[in-house]
Structure formats: structure tokens, C-alpha cells
Amino acid sequence: MATSRISSLLSRSFTSSASSALLSSIGRNSSRRGGIFRYSTAAVVEEPINPSVDVNYTQLLINGQFVDAATGKTFETLDPRTGNVIASVAEGDAEDVNRAVSAARKAFDEGPWPRMSPYERSKILLRFADLLEKHNDEIAALETWDNGKPFEQAAKAEVPLVIRLMRYYAGWADKIHGLTVPADGLHQVQTLHEPIGVAGQIIPWNFPLLMYAWKIGPALACGNTIVLKTAEQTPLSALYASKLLHEAGLPPGVLNVVSGYGPTAGAALASHMDVDKLAFTGSTATGKIVLQLAARSNLKPVTLELGGKSPFIVCEDANVDEAVELAHFALFFNQGQCCCAGSRTFVHESIYDEFVEKAKARALRRTVGDPFKAGIEQGPQIDSDQFEKILRYIRSGVENGATLETGGERFGKEGFFIKPTVFSNVQDGMLIAQDEIFGPVQSILKFKNLDEVIRRANATSYGLAAGVFTQNLDTANTLTRALKVGTVWINCFDVFDAAIPFGGYKMSGHGREKGIYSLQNYLQVKAVITPLKNPAWL
Amino acid sequence: MAAPRIFSLLSASSTAASLRSFGRYSRWGRGSSRFSTAVATEEEPITPPVQIDYTQLLINGRFVDAASGKTFPTFDPRTGDVIAHVAEGEAEDINRAVSAARKAFDEGPWPKMTPYERSCILFRFADLLEKHCSEIAALESWDNGKPYEQAANVEIPMVIRVFRYYAGWADKIHGLTVPADGLHHVQTLHEPIGVAGQIIPWNFPLLLYGWKVGPALACGNTIVLKTAEQTPLSALYASKLLYEAGLPPGVLNVVSGFGPTAGAALSSHMDVDKLAFTGSTGTGKIVLGMAAKSNLKPVTLELGGKSPFIVCEDADVDKAVELSHTALFYNQGQSCCSGSRTFVHESIYDEFIEKAKARALKRVVGDPFKKGVEQGPQIDSQQFNKILGYIKSGIEAGATLEAGGEKFSSKGYYIQPTVFSNVHDNMLIAKEEIFGPVQSILKFKDLDEVIRRANATHYGLAAGIFTQNLDTANTLTRALRVGTVWINCFFVFDAAIPFGGRKMSGHGREKGIYGLSNYMQVKAVVTPLKNPAWL
Hints:
Chain A has helices spanning 2-11, 19-22, 94-109, 118-134, 136-147, 151-173, 208-221, 236-247, 262-271, 284-296, 320-332, 352-365, 384-399, 431-434, 450-458, 473-482, and strands at 60-62, 65-67, 74-78, 85-90, 180-181, 187-195, 198-202, 225-230, 255-259, 277-281, 302-305, 311-314, 344-348, 403-406, 421-424, 441-447, 465-469, 487-490, 509-510, 523-531. Chain A starts with a helix and ends in a 7-residue tail after the last strand. Chain A has 16 helices and 20 strands. Helix content of chain A is 37%, strand content 18%. Helices cover 36% and strands 19% of the residues of chain B. Chain B is built from 15 helices and 20 strands. In chain B, the strands form 5 sheets. Chain B has a 7-stranded mixed sheet with strand order 14-15-16-13-12-17-18, sandwiched between helices. The chains are: A alpha/beta (538), B alpha/beta (535). Chains A and B meet through helix 1, strand 6, helix 10, helix 16 and strand 18 of A and helix 1, strand 6, helix 9, helix 15 and strand 18 of B.
């Protein structure tokens, strides 16, 4: 029950049978708003709502204990609604990463974790999921406070998805099979799928706890130990959750959490000679640096989940209202801060004008405001850097001659809110059609035929995801194969099931997370060969 | 029939079938000299029974000169004489080759052909390789210096086997349908990546060509392959046959050339979708850095090793000596996975040393075209000098030189089979990849100790274990941080067995079912599900 609710909340697919459930979905919260303000009214001048949670954990988590940074330094994590300080958090640096790696190394080389039966590991993960469920609302409140995303989204979609992922990977822990291998000659051959060792994991700020789960779930299920670096913008939820994971029975040192910055803690982790594997989610530029640090140090294998500029293709047979709603959701979800956001809305020329009108109207209806308020669809952007960057992209769109249909400026007077923005007449050569904006800015482009839209959709160095909106099976099949992306959502978007692999082609990344494919990121294959004497069969 | 023969030849497992294995060629070596008598290579080199017809670059299905018109000589390691002048590919040639491969992938028939048609072409290729096995083996021996019998009876048959193996995969690449929580129908497609850049080394030129080209073609990719400058010949010959078998133009492009020019251009190319490299760890790091700095193409790496060969106390010493000898000396010691740290239990150490020394002294070194020769010359003067440098360092560091230690013959790059005993973990010869006929024997007391010492290296490619005790075998198998564990055998390179390294020995696995994922992208396809009969 819980799970189908989650995916309907998150996915915005247009199934008739699910349509009643969808009325309460994130993208349509506007339909049941009560007393909340549209972006055109400056709701956020009201006092921010007080989050109903205490910030109890702000230190580094090393070897099962909360400790200060070696330097004693802290940094401030800010409330994106106001820019005010939420808490001061221990600032991990190279020395702290060293301590954390030592703890993880010892926990892997000597500790009980990889020597525990997979069933025992599985039970710890299941208990963790139960504890997360019990503390769902506190964790969601921390997430919203630190990140600015709507509380309802965090509490009803994201944290439940984290729980779902932990149960998913708990179920994998005791189902990791090697193969027996048919050889040509007199040899018995098997493969063992072994844990790699110490995994370094670096996660971003846009879905802090969800990315935490995508990373630690498979790593733990496969028997590895971890040093996780959170984003400096959003350190809080991972500390809280990791406390629960230790309560669930995780041995000390198996998961170490270091809050800190990329150039210090992140670089130390990526370059560490005693880290056996690295997983990074973030920008393509940083991913390239991280990979080079791994290459120059000990050649640890790296999985990368990077940026995107995903096409959302609305074909001529589309029901325009449904397409507008889905395209709106595909871009604006999470304040537009999704690596797989449908940030190039390609619309067939036959329905283009109607689509633009309705997309504009939908954006105007989007409810922006305090993310703790019920019915709010859009909160503030994460911080002033992103806020300024997005506004620069909007200016560049205007200067390049795209038509600003709505939005285009900040919303309210404090915090990092931006009005839902729609550009039409966007051309492929414009920056807003090429770069990842990572904000609430929809770029609508016109196309004539399939070959053309395939060519244009693929003409990017990214290849993360694509949306296709059509009822025509042949069109869907043609586009599905032709688009060079890791995920194709047809008549749906942002469906993040635990079992569905996610990852990029081209400069959107290496490897796949979630699903059966993600296990191999945390396993080494060992071939074991012996001679075979007097075999009954070959 | 052919396949089991290959294995027994290569694996030197102590079975009846392996009486004819390479490690034991000495038994039927007739008239070829042992290394202690330095006469064999003073004879005139045997003339290889093959002509060199292909020395140009192979781009878009045609043999062409390098854009610069430049050539480089490829040498006979027996003498250091020039075999042929080969077109020298550089950045511009790589660009041409990538354009051809790009076009063949984006527009050409190859990825749009049915998998069965691709499979048929690969099967026809295997048949042609079989028909020309002797010529190809002769080219391989001539260019590389490896024993002709090894090339003709083991390696080329294995290349043929690898192509039949991957031909069989071409039409069996399945995606998955995926159980989702909600009302969604989910499937995954396993798609070709696109243009694959492949860089192969000189130690097993055509075998590694098989490991690289086989899975890439089976999965529907197109290729730009750079061969090693020491051994460009066999890949050109084989690729000609692949086109005869029906490969469309541009699907496989072969560029001969050097690493810093052609190799770097391929690694940095913005239009190459995937890179596979086999070579040294030092170069692998550079290659990966170039991929990271350019377009983030995913990279598989198969790099160096310093693989332990562990002889436990219950070992039959004669068999252990023979197997550890093969594990190190095979292919003139030029194998990334050679068992280059021979750990021997103290209870049998002295006996083992005596016999290992005697076995090395029996090793037949000479003209690789001569029947019964076990060991030919090293690949080139650079390697030759490097190996002699390591031997000097072993002596200076205080290891005991039991046999060999010098060059063999007055010309060419022959080195005497060399055995060191009393080697300690911190000596250079126990730490670095020598890539030559130098066996380092170390003593150990108990399992925990040997596990710790065997793992105390940045490498993690392979390990050999010699024991009859099942518990010992299981304990070591799990504890050793390596990609392959050979128990009572070594160098078993079945097409179905995955091969690759942990730690700084590489990324990914080649061969077997695991080798396919290097050449595929996974695409998740999700649609809503209306009125499903089941979930």
C-alpha cells in the first residue's frame, strides 16, 4: 500500500485507474490548496513556520561515535527560506577523512560486518527501515528545513522511498549469487561476488536522504564498509538517519559520515589510497575532477551520477492538458533541482501554441511558499549561489531572444525563492537549452518531425533521461531506442522505483544505481578455477 | 576436440592430458639447446613461413597510409632486425578512424543488422582464422618472439574459440523486465554503447585483440583499435579476414602507432563512447585521466600484477615446482598475471628451491620457430634492459641467485631463466612487475601470514594456490584480494571465465558473461500500466 502511494505521488503518470490517487500528488497539490498563496502573491513575507524537530546531531560520525572535527572547526548550515543559520556542524577535513577511512578499513578487514551472515546484515537493514518509518516525520522535517523542499514531498514521497530502498536492499543481502561457469575442458569454474572493501560515497544536496539510500543501501547489502561525505548545504538528515542505523545494530565503523566541503573532505576521500571504491553524485564538472583524483591515486573504480539536460518530447498525438501537466512536473519538481529534470520541453508544432499557453497558465498556478505549509508545491532554491546562477540563466534566456512567458524573477523578499519561469521560442543554440540550470525554468522548443527531434534531443553531451509523451506505440518504440539516455519515461516521469536502474549515458555518468544493476558497483568478481578429475559430466 | 587440447596445453594442471603442456615441452625438446649452453641462437634464425602483406592502417574497410605518410619499423626480437615498416598512425589518423566508426555506428548497417547476422559474420571470421592459423601464428611469433608452437597450438586456437564464444552471445543479449511497486510496466534494454576505442599490448597481441574485439562486436558496437607499436602485424592480418567474413566498412578500424600520439588521441577523443585498455598500471592511470578530462567515456582497464603463487605444506613438490615454473616463465614471463611471487611453505622450501632451480636450468631457450623451444626472446631492448636491471637489484638487495641472471646469446633479447631464493617482501623484485623470466621465491610459515603478505601489494590480478586441502583452498580463495584464483592450475583462460583485477590491477572483467557489460549501456524504459491482470 505504502509503496504504490509513493510511486503515484512521485511519478505523475496518467493512468485512469490511478487518477484518483493522483489528485493528491505533488504536481497537483494546487488543486486542493486552502489559503495558500500563488507565487504572484508574496506569501513568504509571513513568519516562517517553525519546523517540528530538534537538531540533535551535528558532529561527525566516526567509528560509531559522534565526534568533533580534528580541527574543532564547524560550518553553518542555512535555512533556504530565510538564509538564517539552522545549526553549526562539525567541518570534516582530510584528517577526519583519514580517521573515518581507518575506522572503515578496520571494520572491513577485521570487523564482524563482512563476516556476518548475509541474513544478519539483512536484518539490520530491515530494522533500520522500521526505525526510519517510526521517525518519518522528524526526518522529513530536517530534510525540508535544510533543503527547502516541500515537507509533504519529503514526508510522503522521499522518506518513504528511502525506507522502501532499505527494505529492497535488505532483501538483496542474502541473494547475491555467483555463477558456476561452463568451461571447455577439465576444470571446475565458479565466480564469487565479493564485497569490494571500503566505499567512499559523496552525495549532493538536492535529495540528501534519498541519495544517501541509493548509495549506502547496495554498499551495505553487499558487505562493504563506508565513508560517506554529505553536501555542505544539507548535512543534517544523514546524521540523524545514521544514528538510527547504529541503533538498528550496525557494528561501529561500518558507516562513517563526514560533513564537509568538496575541495577538502571530498578531495581527501576521492584521493585516498585506502578507499577501494568511490561513488559520486553531483555536477559533471566535479565528477571529472573526482574521477581524475581516483585515477591519480589508487585507481579505485568510480561510479558517477552527474548532470543532465533531459528532453521531454510531446508528440503530435498528445492530449495537451495531460502533456502540459506532466511536462510541468518533469521540470518543476523539487524546485527544478533534479539531475534528470525534463529541462528541454520539445513540443510538436501542431500543438505548440496551445501547449505554451497552457504551460504558462500552469506555471502561474504553481503554489510557491513556505515548504512547511500544506499544499505548497515549490519552496526556495538551496542557496544564494544557485539562486544567483538561475537568475543569470533567466537573464541570458531573455537576452538571447527567448520569449519569457511567465516568471523570471525572485519571489518574495527573503530566502531563495524564484518564480516558476517559462520560456517559449527557445532555440537549441541558447544557453538555457544547453546548460543544466537546476532551477524552476522551463524551456519550450518546437519540433516538426521525429527524425529531427531525435537528432536535437541527442545533440548534447548529457544522456541521463528522457520523457516521451505519445499514445502511438511505434513512435514510442522508435524514440525509446533512438534516445541516448539511461532512462526513458513514456507518459510518466520521475518514476523512481527501487528496482529501476538509474544512470547516465555520455557525460551524465558511469554505471547504474538502484535495481539489480547497482549491486555490481559494490562487488568484485573473483573467478575460482580448479582441475576436474573424473567428472560425471562436462 | 580442439578446445580441451588448448586448455591442457595452457593450463599445466597436473593431469595426464597435461603431459604435453608447455611447462613440459622440455621432455620432448629434441636438438634444441638448454639455456646453459649458449649456442642455440647463434645459429641462423629460422625464416618464418609467412609473408607480410598488410602494413597500412585499416580505416573504413580499406588499407591506407598514415595521413603524415610516416612509418615505423617493427623488429624481430630474435635479432633486433627490421621485419617491416608499418604506417604510423597519429591524431589525424585516429580522427579519420573515429569518423569512420562513428558513421558505421550512427548510420551504417552494423547496429541495425539482426544479432543473428552479426553472429554469422563472427562465425565466418572464426572459420577463416582457423584456415589461416599457421600464417597468423608465424606472424605472431616473428613479431613477438613467443614460441611458434605456443602461438599455433594455443593462442590462435584460443582466439578462434573466443570469437565463436562471442558469436554465440550476439543473439543472446537479453534485457530484463523489472518488477515495480506500482502501476508501471518497466523493462531494461541492453544497448550497444557506440564507438569503442581499444588499446592492446604486445605480449599477447592477437589474443587480446580477441578479448577486446569479440564482445564489442557481439554487442553491436564499432571499434577503433590501436595495436602496440612492437606488434602491429597479426591484428592487421586478422582484420583483413574479418572483412572477408562480411564486416561492413568502418565497423573495425585498426591504427598502428605509439601511445603518446595515437593512444592519447584515442583516449582523449570526444567522439569515442567507451575505452578499453590493457597495459601497464602507469599508462592505465594516464589513459583514465584523459578519458576523465575529455568526455568521461567509461573505461575498462586490465593492468599490471604481482600475483602470488602459494605452495602449501601439503603440496606434492614436483608438481608444485612444475606449475609455479609455468606460472612465471610462460610467454617469457611477459604475462600480466604471471605468478611472480612464489610463496613456499618453510617445511618444503629447501627441496622446492633445488627443484625449481633444476627446472629452470632445464628450460629450453632458443629460436621460437624451433620445435620444442619453451622460451624465446623478450620483446625488445627496453624490456630486456629493464629485466636485467631488476636482476641486478635482486642481487644487490641480497636475494640468492639460484640460476640464470644474465642475457642468453649474443644477439636478440634472450634472457636466461632466472631464479631467486631468499627473496624478502620489501625487495624491488618482490614488489614490482618485472615482466620477464625471473622467479622470486619467498618463504612462509602459516596461512594468516601468507594471506597478509600476498595481499600487501597495490596489485590484485590473480593468485595461484597449490594444496589438496579443501579448507585451506577455501580460506585462501576468499582471503586473496584478486580477480582470479587458480587452484592447482594456472593460466586457465577459458572464454567463459571472467578475467580482471582488483585494486590497481584494473577495472572491470573481460571474457565470459561479465565481458558483455563493458560494451553495453543499460536503458530503463518505464510506462504507466492500465488495468493490469497482475502486478
